[in-house]
């Protein structure tokens, strides 16, 4: 507690556990939960680095506490990492949305049905995690709905084998029967994790199964078919399974943020052994002769599913790369335009 007569309120440290846009919930190091706002300076800094949210759950901050017991965030500690995606918005306006900061493992959650597994989503998520060296895994939820459906069971076994083969842990779970919940709980212990995925796959339900006391809101049966329904509206960092885990709002499309097209192949883990063997160093692995990646696809060493994902992703990465380059040219001037100021090279 700060003495009201004290002219310089004491600085405290804490963890951002909930972000609602302008207000943040911060768990201080002495275990108190405070509502806090940030100083304007951060907003401006954040705009310059093109993030939609200057602070994310998982951020460690310094704050002072005012007379009304709300906090003023004065500083953000350097991040170890951050999981980001392209902020939803107009085409051309490419901005970063930070989902969570300082995270040890990122779980992409998909469901067997309602909605079905979206492999494009999974691969974009895995690429985003790879770009920041964040270990990632896959939760295939609503396993109870597979019961007796042989084709669907085979499909799940296929995805599980594919992603486990790449080194990503895959857990088949059910918030209804409890299948896989113990394995998931064990994976949360002693770490900061995040669950992210489309709306309705059961992210909040799964966390409720791990930690029944959480009482997170989930959509009611019957509501789940309503399109565009998002039950979780703000990212929240929760204590579950002996660790911290961020529950996040459903994402319709996991867009990639700021990736150079020539880097993309390196974020497909199974492409890595071949990248040095392509004839052209700037090979995009699509149409070039002497491409070792395409040869590996032909030799069944890279699956057509993952290669197809790569080709589809490359197109959108090229498109958004062009858009952000043009945005930079608009604000900083185009380097080769004599009428515009030339960017200084260090
Ligand atoms: N059959 C079955 N239904 C499930 C399971 N997990 C969740 N559900 C149902 O799926 C619906 C969506 O669950 P939520 O936990 O709200 O999904 P969410 O991923 O948190 O969705 P958002 O918060 O909108 O992103 C609810 O009706 C749940 O009861 C499961 O394992 N099996
Ligand atoms: Mg939810
Ligand atoms: Zn190649």
UniProtKB/TrEMBL annotation:
InterPro entries: G_CP_dom, NA-bd_OB-fold, P-loop_NTPase, Ribosome_biogen_GTPase_RsgA, RsgA_GTPase_dom, RsgA_N. Its EC number is 3.6.1.-. Residues 101-252 form the EngC GTPase domain. Its main location: cytoplasm. CDD domains: S1_YloQ_GTPase, YjeQ_EngC. Residues 337-346 have a biased composition (Acidic residues). Binds 1 zinc ion per subunit. It is found in: Cytoplasm. Keywords: Cytoplasm, GTP-binding, Hydrolase, Metal-binding, Nucleotide-binding, Ribosome biogenesis, RNA-binding, rRNA-binding, Zinc. GTP binds at residues 141-144, 197-205. Pfam families: RsgA_GTPase, RsgA_N. Residues 322-346 are annotated as: Disordered. Its cofactor is Zn(2+). Residues 91-254 form the CP-type G domain. The keyword GTP-binding applies. Zn(2+) binds at residues 278, 283, 285, 291. HAMAP family: GTPase_RsgA. One of several proteins that assist in the late maturation steps of the functional core of the 30S ribosomal subunit. Helps release RbfA from mature subunits. May play a role in the assembly of ribosomal proteins into the subunit. Circularly permuted GTPase that catalyzes slow GTP hydrolysis, GTPase activity is stimulated by the 30S ribosomal subunit. NCBIfam families: ribosome small subunit-dependent GTPase A. Belongs to the TRAFAC class YlqF/YawG GTPase family. RsgA subfamily. This is Small ribosomal subunit biogenesis GTPase RsgA. It comes from Rubrivirga marina. The lineage of its organism: Bacteria, Pseudomonadati, Rhodothermota, Rhodothermia, Rhodothermales.
């Amino acid at each position: 507690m700060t003495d009201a007569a004290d002219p310089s309120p004491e600085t405290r440290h804490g963890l951002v556990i909930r972000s609602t846009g302008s207000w943040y919930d911060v768990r201080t190091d002495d275990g108190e939960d405070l509502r806090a706002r940030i100083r304007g300076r951060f907003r401006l800094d954040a705009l310059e680095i093109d993030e939609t949210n200057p602070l994310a759950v998982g951020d460690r901050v310094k704050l002072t506490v005012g007379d009304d017991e709300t906090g003023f965030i004065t500083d953000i500690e350097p991040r170890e990492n951050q999981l980001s995606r392209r902020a939803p918005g107009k085409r051309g306006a490419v901005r970063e949305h930070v989902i969570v900061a300082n995270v040890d493992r990122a779980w992409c959650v998909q469901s067997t049905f309602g909605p079905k597994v979206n492999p494009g989503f999974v691969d974009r998520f895995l690429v985003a995690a790879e770009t920041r060296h964040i270990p990632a895994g896959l939760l295939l939820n609503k396993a109870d709905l597979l019961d007796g459906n042989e084709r669907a069971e085979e499909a799940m076994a296929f995805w599980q084998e594919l992603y486990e083969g790449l080194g990503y842990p895959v857990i088949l779970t059910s918030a209804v029967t409890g299948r896989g919940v113990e394995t998931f709980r064990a994976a949360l212990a002693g770490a900061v994790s995040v669950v992210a995925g489309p709306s309705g796959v059961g992210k909040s339900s799964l966390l409720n199964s791990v930690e029944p006391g959480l009482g997170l809101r989930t959509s009611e049966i019957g509501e789940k078919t309503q399109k565009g329904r998002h039950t979780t509206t703000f990212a929240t960092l929760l204590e579950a399974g002996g660790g911290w885990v961020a529950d996040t709002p459903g994402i319709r499309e996991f867009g990639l943020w700021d990736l150079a097209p020539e880097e993309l192949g390196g974020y497909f883990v199974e492409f890595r052994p071949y990248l040095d063997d392509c004839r052209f160093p700037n090979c995009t692995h699509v149409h070039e002769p002497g491409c070792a990646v395409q040869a590996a696809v032909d030799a069944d060493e890279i699956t057509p599913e993952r290669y197809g994902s790569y080709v589809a992703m490359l197109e959108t990465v090229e498109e958004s790369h062009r858009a952000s380059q043009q945005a930079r040219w608009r604000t900083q001037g185009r380097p080769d335009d004599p009428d515009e100021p030339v960017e200084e090279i260090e």
